[in-house]
Write a structure and sequence with these properties.
Elements: E1 6-10, H1 17-27, E2 31-33, E3 36-38, E4 52-54, H2 57-65, E5 69-75, E6 78-83, H3 84-92, E7 96-100, H4 103-110, E8 117-122, H5 127-136, H6 141-155, E9 163-166, H7 170-186, H8 192-206
Parallel strand pairs: 1-7, 1-8, 2-7, 3-4, 8-9
Antiparallel strand pairs: 3-6, 5-6
Helix pairs in contact: 1-7, 5-6
The protein binds guanosine-5'-monophosphate.
Guanosine-5'-monophosphate binds at residues 13, 17, 36, 40, 71, 73, 75, 80-82, 100-102, 105.
Length: 207
């Protein structure tokens, strides 16, 4: 059976990963979102098991100890981690999954044997990042400044990704991410079983 494709979308904080992905999910069928664990407190609209699995520090420590994390980072004063068993289960079922994570975690995932397809999402100018974070209005000005600095550092890792998507125009960015997913799904290496089936059917007709 075809193994699922692991997609990783990353980029500086405020690049619009969440907004882009929400629209991508409306247009792409059979794609699973990887729900991370975090020690951060839920924001107003966020729901347990949908946006994140919200954990206490002790629970998060235990998950690390149990080897449950594919990767995890300590960022912005909270911890965020990708749950390994869930990803492996989805991939082994032949389904595609997408991780929306920050850049250090994305680099760690790249080093695993899961062969992720990595997409770097960024606005064309980094000052847009602070404007977006101000608009989001969930962080103090100090934190916004610190996050912009982190954004510059994160931008340096863009060279290591498979794809670059500029998010100045939401619709365009969504179309490009959708195009990447569709192109990856069409790769021969992801369709060997389909080729086998076509050959088998042809051979049966010729018997
Ligand atoms: P937020 O607090 O705004 O939801 O997320 C902060 C950052 O953490 C975002 O860049 C988000 O993509 C990232 N993030 C969310 N889940 C994970 C995860 O499991 N691992 C890593 N490395 N980063 C994550």
């Amino acid at each position: 059976m075809r193994k699922g494709i692991l997609f990783v979308i990353s980029g500086p904080s405020g690049a619009g990963k969440g907004t882009v992905l929400k629209e991508v999910f409306k247009k792409v069928k059979d794609l699973t979102y990887s729900v991370s664990a975090t020690t951060r407190k839920p924001r107003h609209e966020e729901k347990e098991g949908i946006n994140y699995f919200f954990k206490t520090d002790e629970e998060f420590d235990q998950m690390i100890k149990n080897g449950e994390m594919l990767e995890y980072v300590n960022k912005y004063g909270s911890r965020y981690g990708t749950i390994k068993s869930y990803i492996e289960k989805v991939l082994n079922e032949g389904k595609d999954i997408i991780l929306e994570i920050e850049t250090i975690g994305a680099q760690k995932v790249k080093k695993t044997r899961l062969e992720p397809v990595s997409i770097f999402l960024t606005p064309s100018k980094l000052d847009i990042l602070t404007d977006r974070l101000k608009y989001r209005n969930t962080e103090s000005p100090d934190w916004q400044q610190r996050r912009l600095q982190i954004g510059i550092e994160e931008m340096m890792s863009a060279y290591d990704y498979d794809y670059l998507v500029i998010n100045d125009d939401l619709e365009n960015a969504v179309d490009e991410v959708v195009a990447i997913i569709k192109a990856e799904r069409l790769k021969v290496k992801n369709n060997k079983d389909l080729i086998d089936r076509i050959i088998n059917k042809g051979e049966k007709k010729n018997d």
